[in-house]
Amino acid sequence: MLRGTRANRHDGAVTDETRLTIDVDGTPVGAIAARPDGATATVVVAHGAGAGMEHPFLSGFTRALNARGLATLRFNFAYIEQGRRMPGRPPAAIAAWRAVMDRVRADAPGPVWAAGKSYGGRMASMAVAEGMPAAGLVFLGYPLHPPGRPDRLRDEHLPGLTLPMRFVQGTNDPFATPNEQLDDLVARIGPNATVDWIAGGGHSFEVKGRKRPPEDVAADLAPRVAEFVRSH
């Protein structure tokens, strides 16, 4: 198991979390790992562009995966550690993904999956396209295009990837409307890719008229993802 400073969390079925630091080309980034007894796979999760690993959405999602017997590690990109609000160029995020996955594969038995909220998932897929090994990819709200700009697709690196991929996407996500564009992308990738539409969900899977804490919204996605990971 990845070791670091034990987090003060004892939450019933939730596995204890461990804080650690991972070196990314000389820059330390924070991470939080959890490995329930008997875990046979690890899901590494990156945050979206505007929030780090402490965001309730990420903690709710990873803790719900832990409750379903999967190990997790969520981490910060370097710009978050440096106090910047916006990410830099993709090479920095790709370097972080490589360093984190190398660390996890060295310490964790079993397959290691790469997952991410929005920007974090897109950067994971770009790292895989550049040769980073992963058992599969999980996208939590893939940013297929900027809001209102369906002509500016961010998909050129995805067709041709042959590892298992699951897109979990809200039907009201402005980063993926019209929905047919994502369906078309998944069809072009091939049978290794599937999309799981969340009815009424926005970019963070919020549903209009239904106020819920982000950790609860994210936790509801965990059974879908856990089932996909176990099926592969």
Q: Can you walk through the features of this model?
A:
This protein is of the alpha/beta class and 232 residues long. The protein has helices at 56-67, 78-81, 90-107, 119-129, 179-189, 214-219, 222-231; strands spanning 5-6, 18-24, 27-34, 42-46, 71-75, 112-117, 137-140, 165-170, 193-198. The protein has a nine-stranded mixed β-sheet, sandwiched between helices. The protein is globular, with a radius of gyration of 16 Å.
The first-to-last residue Cα distance is 22 Å
Percent of residues in beta strands: 15-25%
The strand order across the widest sheet is: 1-2-3-5-4-6-7-8-9
Contiguous runs where pLDDT drops below 50 for at least 5 residues: 3-12
Question: What is the radius of gyration computed over CA atoms, rounded to a whole number of angstroms?
Answer: 16 Å
Taking the sheet with the most strands, its summary is: 9 strands, mixed
**Structural classification:** alpha/beta
List the helices and strands and how they pair.
Elements: E1 5-6, E2 18-24, E3 27-34, E4 42-46, H1 56-67, E5 71-75, H2 78-81, H3 90-107, E6 112-117, H4 119-129, E7 137-140, E8 165-170, H5 179-189, E9 193-198, H6 214-219, H7 222-231
Helix pairs in contact: 1-7, 3-4
List keywords for this structure.
disordered N terminus, 9 strands, about 230 residues, nine-stranded mixed sheet, alpha/beta, about 30% helix, 7 helices, globular
Write a concise synopsis of the structure shown:
The chain has helices spanning 56-67, 78-81, 90-107, 119-129, 179-189, 214-219, 222-231, and strands at 5-6, 18-24, 27-34, 42-46, 71-75, 112-117, 137-140, 165-170, 193-198.
